Amino acid sequence: MKKYLYKITFLFLVSVTAISCDDFLDVVPQDKILEDQIYNTEAGIQNAHNGLYLQLASNSLYGQQLTMDAVEIFGQQYNMSGSHNKSTMATYAYTEKIPKATISNIWEKAFTTILSANKFLESIDEHKNVVSAEKADLLKGEAIAIRAMLHFDMLRMFGPIYKTSPNDPGIPYYDKFVTTNNPILPAKEVMAKILADLDASLNLLANDPVFTIGRTGTSTAYDGNPYYATKRGQRMNYLAVKALKARVLLYSGDKTGAFTVANELINFTKSNTFFPWTPFLDATNSANPDRTFSSENFFALSDFNLYAKQKALFDSSLSEFDIYSPLLTRINAVFESNDNDYRSLPTWKIPVVGGKTQKTFYKYEDVATKTMTFRLQIPMFKVSEMYLIAAETAAVPADGIAFLNTLRFNRGLANLAVTAVLATEITKEYRKEFIGEGQLFFYYKRIGSATIPNGSAASGNVTMGALQYVVPMPDSEINFQ
After folding, report:
1. CB 244 within 8 A of CB 155
2. Quick count: other Cβ atoms within 10 Å of Cβ 262?
3. Beta-strand (E) ranges in 173-305?
4. Rounded (10°) CA dihedral 73, 79, 85, 91
5. Is residue 72 part of a domain?
6. What range defines the domain where residue 117 resides?
7. Which of 1, 106, 345, 474 shows a CA-CA span of 20 to 30 A to 60?
8. Which pLDDT band, with edges at 50, 70 and 90, does 179 fall under?
9. Cis peptide leading into 209, omega within 30 of 0?
């Protein structure tokens, strides 16, 4: 990571200002001038803050690799047989050219964004009184949450199988802006730092407008400034940070804590109308299907290049060497050949053009009406995951089945019998619920599954262990430790 740490200040500042490339080498005086220009105005601070979200939506992070691409390939979501261009990704050949470059880009972009968040936090404190204290708290709360989220996903990807090896080496943690490499910490220490950051974020976001306006509303809070008090569902708001905390606690093995936080969010959604279950007619609307169940999303990332990525990865005109698509037998097994599931149609269809005989993925396909509020959004944290966490951590299996049945009912499925095998049914729901959202591989790693269904074969499993689950750090990090 050392090779880009020295450039981070300049790169972050350039992301929110226009500057000639000829000035690149003049970093030392220029970056401070740019910083003062940016942080001396409220608009500049907002631009710098929004730059963090733009980085999150990059191809190397949640705009592609950490949602619909690399981590989904690792989770065997697609058929990537030997002839496919990404077959080495699906076989966990991490030292081969394509996986190695992809992994390096993910690592570098994640830690660049972390350091950008740290630079933002440092700079907003240095330029006090440009925005009010309550506005600063909101912005800082989001930035700290972004830092925690990225560290967590890097730990999930590059760290050990936490369930069995929490004291093994994890990743470095950066809670300050620095230009030197931090040491790699034991995974358990990284987890503690993540949870501390989440608690700090929640404290700063205690007065988040999301409590009164939900995900899409507007508020007169924060001087009525729309940057702070509009569409909080497109920001790392208080509820999203809570959802992340539930996810982190479950990964750490704290089932009691995870249940408490997940149930708190479930009760919040029951007490108001801000995050309703997406109804059947919205999810399956022929012209404007809400395939991402947007009403349920505590936080959805906006990506203005989303539909280009949909075409580049999933379009039916792509060759068999390029398309990201499962075998028909595999996707039918996932949905148990039940198209009544809202998540099946219209997200999965055999296309009428392109000559494909398998179902292809339409979750991120554009809709007819360009004013639909759910356009260009990638789900990050949503109500359904809280029900899955509550189901897994419930004190008694019958209560867990009840949580699952609530989710299933709102996906068009019949109730499970109280005697159903809870762990098996939870796995089934993870396989259905998060396709294209980057959660299945991490779920398998969390529970330490020894085998997972082979996405590149009509039947059979892939044997999984540390060699598959623990993605190796890039050489650039290892060589400078």
Report:
1. no
2. 29
3. 184-186, 297-302
4. 60
5. yes
6. 1-206+450-481
7. 345
8. confident
9. no
Q: What confidence tens digit (pLDDT) does each residue in 326-358 have?
A: 999 999 999 999 999 999 999 999 999 889 999
281 domain residue, yes or no:
no
- Specify the length of the chain in residues: 481
Q: The CATH number of the domain where 182 resides is what?
A: 1.25.40.390
Distance CA 108, CA 112 (A): 6
State the pLDDT at residue 227. 96
Q: Considering only CA atoms, which of 208, 427, 223 is closest in space to residue 336?
A: 427
- Are the C-beta atoms of residues 176 and 205 closer than 8 Å to each other? no
**271 within some domain:** no
pLDDT (tens digit, 9 = 90+) per residue, 19-45?
Answer: 333 333 344 455 666 788 889 999 999
| Distance of alpha carbon 111 from the chain centroid | 15
Number of domains in the chain: 1
d(C-alpha 69, C-alpha 81), whole Å: 16
Contacts 24+ apart (CB under 8 A), 122-130: 122/176, 122/177, 123/35, 123/38, 123/39, 123/48, 124/39, 124/45, 126/39, 127/36, 127/39, 127/40, 127/45, 130/39, 130/40, 130/41, 130/42, 130/45
At 445, the amino acid letter reads: K
Q: Does the predicted TM-score (pTM) go above 0.85?
A: yes
Residue type, 10: F
- Rounded-to-10 torsion of CA 179, 185, 187, 189: -100
